[in-house]
Amino acid sequence: MKPWRLTLTNQLVLGYGLHEHMDCYSTRPASEDELRSFHSSDYLEFLKRVTPENADSFLQQLPRFNIGDDCPIFSGMWDFCSLYAGASLDAASKVLNNQSDIAINWSGGLHHAKKSEASGFCYVNDIVLAILQLLRHHPRVLYIDIDVHHGDGVEQAFYSTDRVMTLSFHKYDKDNYFPGTGSWDDIGGGAGKHYSLNVPLRDGIDDENYIRLFKSIVQPVITSYQPSSIVLQCGADSLGGDRLGCFNLNIAAHGACVAYVKSFGLPLLLVGGGGYTPRNVSRLWCYETSIATGVDVGLELPVKLGSPYRAYFAPDYKLHPSLGRDGRFENKNTKKYLESVRIRIMEQLRYLNGAPSVQMMEIPPELGRLQSELQNGVKEEQKA
Questions:
Q1: Which segments constitute the Histone deacetylase domain (predicted)?
Q2: Strand, coil or helix: what is 249?
């Protein structure tokens, strides 16, 4: 998750000249007021004050905010979080103001962060903040997540509203794979019931099956829900050969999902996410930038990519190395299983009866409270 992934991505984008086909903006830090539109004040105060040097004085707060192995304290943490969140907020603003048909923030996509705690390398949930921004003028937002891990933080934030539909394709193993959520029967609650869609996958899914399943689900979801904008989280840990991933996807297949979502012509926000083999993360996000801009970059690395960056792409020096053909993970997704997952999603869509009507004056500002009330109600019913 270190910024080196972004440095390599930036060098590839510049090397191919893709920056000449889009408007490029310098971001600014998100303000505390902007961050408080989702995150709690005490959690933000903690993030702002804690450093590696004074961490001992916050020992009692570390468990409360889930700070530990997966979410360590590091120098510049507050600046980093506020900058990537500010970038996603600015990207959403470009979409809202019709300055961009597609806006990209590869530094964003940190989908595990919760209202009052960090999770899975994620401290501030820039995706939730950006979606709240979009909801100011867009009646319905569709969130699609193709990270190998379940987009639990975003789903949890919008669990009780029908103004956001979340659709996550991910590896699911409740007891053995982080975060252990995202079963097919995890469908939302309250006004948001049936607006949380999950596609739980098993190890080793390949290009052909993934693309077929993705298209067969996304098309009816968009037709039924009729979103006015889409946020697509492009986590690169779903690629074959990722250090934490368990799929066999190649860069072209991952990019085909982005191209398919783009083909619907809706305002689109692309964000990054996971990905723990930096040379492949950067290849992927550069390729998906080329898809967004409609520029064919070919298969060879750009000629302008000089030292020291070129050395990181040895020995093939290709934009599309073979990532999924080595059979690192056996494909445990049978056609019967994938079809059963698709059918379950279609069954959920039948409950919706078309796109929900929206009272535009109601922007979901108290999502944490709504979710707490729902969960407390469930607990009371279980006791009874």
A1: 1-290
A2: strand
pLDDT band at 384 (very low <50, low <70, confident <90, very high): low
56 is in an annotated binding site: no
Q: Pairing relation of β-strands 196-201 and 164-171?
A: parallel
- Torsion angle in degrees (nearest 10) through CA of 233, 237, 238, 239: 120
- Ligand-binding annotation for 237, yes or no, is yes
Q: Is 70 annotated as a binding residue?
A: yes
> pLDDT, tens digit, for every residue of 161-177?
999 999 999 999 999 99
For helices 278-293 and 251-262, angle between their N-to-C axes, nearest 10 degrees: 30
Q: Which of 112, 138, 170, 254 is catalytic?
A: 112
Q: Is 276 assigned to a binding site?
A: yes
Give a three-class secondary structure readout of 280-330. HHHHHHHHHHHHHHCCCCCCECCCCCCCCCHHHHCCCCECCCCCCCCCCCC
* CATH tag, 4-24+90-383: 3.40.800.20
CB 1 within 8 Å of CB 269: no
What's at 10, amino acid-wise?
Answer: N
Give me the residue spans of the domains in the chain: 4-24+90-383
What span, in angstroms and rounded, lies between the C-alpha atoms of 325 and 72? Answer: 35
Is the C-alpha dihedral spanning 181, 182, 187, 188 positive or negative?
positive
